[in-house]
Each structure stands twice: as structure tokens, then as C-alpha cells.
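Box 3.1. Reading complex inputs
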Amino acid sequence: MTQRSSRPSRPRGPHPPRRRTGPSRPPVEDPARQAALDTLRAVRQRDAYANLVLPGLLRERRITGRDAALATELAYGTARAQGLLDAILAACSDRPLSEVDGSVLDALRLGAYQLLRTRIPAHAAVASTVDLVRAELGSGAAGFANAVLRRVTEQDEAGWVEEVAPDEDTDPIGYLAMAHAHPRWIAQAFAEALGSRGEPLREALAADDTRPLVHLAARPGECSADELAAMTGGDVAPYSPYGVHLEAGAGDPGDLDPVRERLASVQDEGSQLCALALTRVPLEGSDARWLDLCAGPGGKAVLLGSLAVLSDATLDAVEKAPHRAELIRKAAGDLPITVHVGDGRDSGLPEGGFDRVLVDAPCTGLGALRRRPEARWRRQPSDVAPLARLQRELLTAALGLVRPGGVVAYVVCSPHLSESVGVVGDVARRTGAEQLDTREYFPGVPDLGNGPHVQLWPHMHGTDAMFCSLLRRPA
Amino acid sequence: MRLVFAGTPEPALPSLKALLASRHEVVAVVTRPDAPAGRGRKVERSPVAALADEHGIEVLTPAKASDPDFQARLRELEPDLCPVVAYGALLPESALAIPVHGWVNLHFSVLPAWRGAAPVQAAVRHGDDITGATTFRIVKALDAGPVYGVVTERVRERDTAGDLLARLAESGAQLLVSTVDGIEDGTLRPVEQSEEGVSYAPKVTVDDGRLDFSAPAAALDRVARAVTPDPGAWAEFRGERLKLGPVVPVEEDGLKPGELRVERKRVLVGTGTTPVQLTDVQAQGKKRMAATDWARGVRIEAGERIS
């Protein structure tokens, strides 16, 4: 802080120092931890998204390289583990966390995360966190933070889990939820989708609790996955012919040359596979008009639009929010995509006017928690029912917009049965739509279960937990 | 011809020097923006920018080549041809169209082998006997344009990627000048690359330099030479990262993978086959030193391993 040191010193007055602060320390320059802390505060105070706030802070403050990597690991890791960290902090604090100042709590979470889930030495994790608290809130708060964090250091993560988690024998789901830092209701939803509360659930939660690779999609017709891997240093993805996996580094993948030059976009491999599945179903008759009914912000629309070019088809894209529709227009470039602003349930588009329709419906996002650090603590069980109603209405509308014999892909990034199997079964029954064996259109992808739907999982496929079901309108 | 040269790191320098000494006129250079580098994160001028400064040549550093201001300036410069050596970023079609004769790239492999960012490292890592340098016209697909000329170069037994790249940078510079001459004279007809034999050489990451001592000695030797000097080979010793120089296979036996044996004049490590000898090492926060000095300092115990 050069401004501080260049300020002229205060005239010496007769008044005593305002407060006794103990041995004075030079201000510590710790841009990485400060950025992580500021991100956590924005998440707590403004319901901000960590993965939108942090990249902006890093850019603004010119934090790059190792500092940026550290800030990312600490901010996202802390946000992801919050529930577990809070349970441990509560056990280490002599007052309830609800009475702890919010800023102090952010710092405690940040400190506890470093102690339990990183290789940062304990003394450094404690000292750096206490310094942040002292700089902002004074030495009283710093003393409290110091005392709590020292208690956290008394055990490692496994030791604390044993102490704060429910008993494994009587409540296996509650135990695994705590051990892998998930709210219990989400672990319960995973267990139901997996049909297991044992080892498969543990693997699913563990995979969901790790930092995911960055997935890129090479734009069909513009660049191959091989080329994209060579340009980015990534690895060709196992299942999507357009996919590349990239180690999650410090940088914003949006800054990669091939992404900026529109040769590729950032997109989970599971999303790519679901969009591709729609295009792979054979059709009798015309195949020239495709529709993406819930298109914002446009990832799948661009992939479908590129594939449409290769098949001499065109794509219509419907999006309710004007600013998201604008994002699609920008991303579409010169692809044959027509963007409509409107509600997919009542789009005004011609009934039976389309050969293939994608419904990538709004959902709880429980399948993409890896990529949205704080989302698991913000989502509520009560979010599910209204979303499921919206999903049924959208899928019903899609089956009206597709021509007889045409095909609809219903996709959500959630394994919650109410949003996936429940929606498809209900709508198919009421509309008479035929459920196709969706697994056939995910060639080469293993472990797809008994069908007819496809549920992908991070621990089995390395993708988000995407659900896909293909339906045909009776001819 | 009027040339605008695009390049960034050290291996681009022999080409720029050769073009400066040629009958052509280098009117500007394009280079990646100054980036913080090294200890202390000082902002450093790229080697190409520094050489251009010495010769009083205009330096353009667009953050991306699709930047309209950059392209406007490039148009004003009216280049006949833009030679490129290790520029380090993609060129969009809007930029490709500006020079009369397009952009010509010097790539350090015999195309279509090892398209991509790290062809020399790939050649060493895969144990190629012969590699080389190729000049080709840049098209939108990665390193896929038609070829003007090729020189070949033998990969020597103890070559590191750095050694080989230094030789290719020199021989490639001569190829680039004769390619530019030939384009001006109209005597060169570029030939489309074969679709067979295409391979890709992705960027090399720090993880690629990690040595897995359960691999055969010959493979470890190639990997270590391929990542030297950059980003460097490494392994873990007592839970900390230890940077390693090249490793040399020796004809002996009796060590388990990763097991260390310290002798008076050498330090051996077991592999999946026969052991390798460590040359130099660098512990965290220490200087690079001979492996024997390091081993004496840390007092390696019998049976201790590196992994």
C-alpha cells in the first residue's frame, strides 16, 4: 500500500494512542488470501457467485500466476466445504457461530480450510488468517480468531469428521454428507438416484467435492479435438469427439486463444454428449429445423448450431431473459441461429414446426455442484418442486413444437429423481411420447445403467451429473 | 520485400537476425505483451522486442491478434509478407488476410509430424532419430498449411530439448530466409501436407516433467531430456519437490524403482529396468548443485527413495 507510506505523518499531539495494539507488525501483503476473503464476503453478503466474483477481483488487482492459483483454491475450496468447516468451527468456538461477526466467520472458514484441506503449514495458515482479521477488525477479533484456529489445529480433517458427523452405522447418508461437505438433503438425493447409500454414494460425493478439470468443446467444422488439445496443452476427452480436458489452473479459460478466437468454448463434456445425442437419433423425413427451447447462455446452442451447419439445418433458440438472449446472439457469430426472446412454454413458434428439439431445462443444478462452489449451501429442498413443475411444462411444450416422428432431448444438470425420471415419466404418460433407449446415442460411454434414460456422474464419467432422455413424438 | 516479423522467445532470435541481415526490410515486429517473469515477477521485454529495440524497429504487442487497432496499424505498414517464429498466439483470419503473400511460419518439426506448441520436446520424448524445421503458409487449422521448405536435423543421443532447439533455430533461420527469397522471386510453390502421419505436440506442462521411476531407464532418460531446460524434470524426495537435470542410464542392477544409492562420485536411482545416474539437482529454496553434493548434504539413508 504505497498510499499509506506516502501519507505525511500525523502531527504529534498530546493525546494518548487510541488503543493498545500489542507489538506492532508491518502490514502484511497477502493479495491471494485477501482476494479469497473478499470473495467469501461477497458470497455471504450479496449472494454473489464465487466463480463470477473472484476472476474479476484477480483481474482488477493484477493477481496472476501462483497467487491467483492460491486465491482460487482457497476461495472455491472454502466455499465448497463451508458446512463441514462450520461444524468444526462451532466445536472449536466458545460462542455460537451465529453470534460471530460475519467478517470474522469468513476468515475463520478460510483459515480452517487451509488447516484441514491444504498442505499449507499450520503456523502459516493461522498467522496469515489472524493477520487478515487484525488488519480489518483489530486485535480483539484477531485474538478470538487465533484461539479458535489453534483448536482446529488439534486434529486433522478425518479426526474432526469423526467428532462432528452423525454416526456412520445409524445414519450412513448423514455421515457421508458431512465427511464430503454436502448438505444432507443433497446426499440423500444422490443416494436415491444411485440406488445406494454405500460405496457408490461415497464415490459420488467424493468426486463432487474435488476441483473439476476445465472442459472445452472444439467447435465442429472449425477445429478438431486433437488440434485443440495441441493448442491448449490439454488432453483429448474420452467420450465426446469434440471434447478436451484441461488441468484447472489459475487462469480464466475464457482467456485461452482458441476460446477467444471462437474455435472452442468452455463446456462440460456431459453437456456436449447430451447435445450430440439429440443429433444422433435417426429421423425419417425432413431434418432441417432444429430448436433449442431453453437456450441461454448458449453453450449447447452454439454446439448445435455448428453441427447444424454440417447437416444443412438451421437452429432456432428461445431464451426468456433478454440479456441471456444477447449472450447467445454474440456467441452465435455467423452460425445459422435465430434467437427469440420469449418463454419456452409459450414461445409462439409453429406447432409441429421442428424436427429436433432440445429442452435443457432450468434445474437445481445439483449435478454441477463441482463448478459452482457455494451452490450446494444455497440451494434448498424447497427449490425442487417449482422447478419440476416448470420442467414438465417445458417438456410438454417441446413435444408440441416437434413434428410427428421428430425427436426431443430432455436434459437437466441434476440427478434429482423429481427433476429427471419423474418429469420424463409423467410427461411421456400424458402426451403418449415414446421414450427411446437413450443409451444407444451415447456410444462408447460405459456404465449407463438399465436405461432407458442416461444419467452421467462425475465419479464414473468425469462429467457433471447430467441427465438425458430422448423422446419421439408419435407419427 | 517489406516484412513484419512475429515472434517472442529466444529461439526466434536467429531468424530475426538473419532477416535483418537479408535483402529484405523488417519494418516492425509483433510480439506477445510484456509479461511478469522470473523471481520478483519483474516485467521483462520479450527477447524479440529487445532485439527490435536495439535496431530501432517498431514493436507491436497486441493482447490478441484480432485487436482492431493492431490490425489497422498492420495494414498501414503494408507488409508483403509476415514471417512467424514461435509467436505464441493464434492468428485470426482477419489478420491472415493483411499481408500480400500471407504469413509464413517456421515450425520446428518435419510436418505433418508434431503440429502444435512443443514439437522439439515431443521429438526428444518419443525418441525420434531425425527431426527438423519446416516453413509453411499459415492457414486457419493448426500448423496445417502448405509447405515451402524443410531442413532435417539428427537428434543426438544426449540432446536436451534446449540443445536441439538451439540448433534448429539456427538452421531454421537460414531456411526461413531462403523461403522469403523464394516467395519474392516466385520460384517456390508450396506443397500441401500429407494427411497421413499427422501428430500433435501439446504444450508441455509442469506435470509432464514428473519422473516416474517405475518406468524403464530409457524412457526416463528421454522424458528428462525432453523437459530440459523447461519446465524441468522433478520428483518428490521426503515430501518435497526436487528438480532434476537430465538422468543418464547406467548398465548395472540391484536397485528398486526410486531407490537411491550414493557413491563417491555418483548418485544412482533405481528404475523399472536398470538404474539411472542423477546429474544435477535443485532442492526447494536451494541452488542447483551436483547430485553428489546434494546427497552428502541431505545424508541419504540406506534404502531411501525418490518418487
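In summary: The CA atoms of residues 10 and 47 of chain B lie 6 Å apart.
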